[in-house]
């Protein structure tokens, strides 16, 4: 595979060139390199240039040549490297250092006695050249130690790739980074039109890069990033962060992210050309049992990339709870989270308690939205899940929809059918054994919550405290009457409001729930351990 050797000056023919990527003078290049963990000096940059290991993309000369003038259109000539390069091109002072070689007449470091205010070495780099620093410095160490060229000399391959990245950046880089830059003098509508219409093949033609080499160069960049990045295991999550997030990285992680950005710029060009039938499409990696560089594509919409929810789940950061506990009233809403805390399940990402405000309310919407697995890609005979699964535990008084075991099972089967229906709408089928554990129904026996779970000896002091009756509530007669009414309520399976109302007590259920919260909490832990922990553990599974 050969690349045509093109002058870097050809890049100035590309509309909006250097608007999305950067041009850097030597000082800026050294600072950017330091952010990526490389310590450079002007002497090192000069040595890399001399040996042909890292050659600036442009040199701004003091000598104007009429025949070298380049029409750069109506570019605003700002006071920055891009503006200096464009002005030099207009005046015929721009050179391609690859074409002219290196001369000691062009030092990188300011000579003694030369005024700092008027002197500039004139060398300009593309920000894309930073991704080759590791390899360039490794080769330079080889040259210094052995006084010989390494076997794999970079040649024109890397240079041609840099030119291709520069040419492709106005079209592709903004999409990779998730941001578009509009430097001074840029017409926004024209840039958007260029990004949607300008032929990709023409951009590669300007750079002299053979389209067949797009995949190979991209895979090399991805492989190098994979081998060097200390945060590579976090890539499934990092690929979903914005540029403003990952650009705060330093050292090797930042350097490797930019290698992946470069690879994605090339691969997006490859994908577009493959769609037009100009080159072979990328291979289908579905079901591959081993890692390939293409698995590390930065694009979160790439088919092999884990969704954000799946990535969060794999790292234990899923916002979805493992279990939703649906309860009826205020008392349960106060007690159950505290009991869960006793079981070490206080984290809302483990168990989330939701109040239904009555046993007549249908939990279908909660089941359809909160419990139906979010189905991802199908691989063979399984579907990958895009989010950690959630189980639904319904804890109700034995009344209305939940009055008998038969009614409870009917409601449970209706919820399971609704969940299966939602899964089928995503093109998947949930196996019965998996589906069955997604919904569990528990009732408090024949009695309502307070009467089913607390003894008279626990309820009477709590009621007395809420009633605020003073000495009257401590009298044997008052307590005996209260005990009698509680027994009658249990016999009739009434709500606790009935005996309290007959004692002419204005019930504050929240206050009574707080009073009951400390009563026999250790004894009541067993109520939840079996059915909550089992559901929480099983939702750790990743496949349907």
**Beta-strand percent range:** 5-15%
Low-confidence stretches: 540-544
* Rounded mean pLDDT score: 84
> How are the strands of the biggest sheet laid out side by side?
1-4-2-3
Helix content: 40-55%
Count of helical stretches? 24
Form type: elongated
Radius of gyration: 35 Å
Written account of the structure:
The protein is an alpha/beta fold and 544 residues long. It is 48% helix and 8% strand. It has helices at 26-35, 42-50, 81-91, 97-100, 133-146, 157-177, 188-197, 200-207, 214-228, 235-238, 243-246, 252-275, 308-314, 330-342, 364-371, 405-425, 432-437, 449-453, 456-467, 471-474, 476-492, 497-502, 509-517, 521-538, and strands at residues 23-25, 58-60, 94-95, 123-126, 323-327, 351-355, 375-379, 382-385, 391-396, 439-443. The strands form 3 sheets. It has a 4-stranded antiparallel sheet. Strand 7 and strand 8 form a beta hairpin.
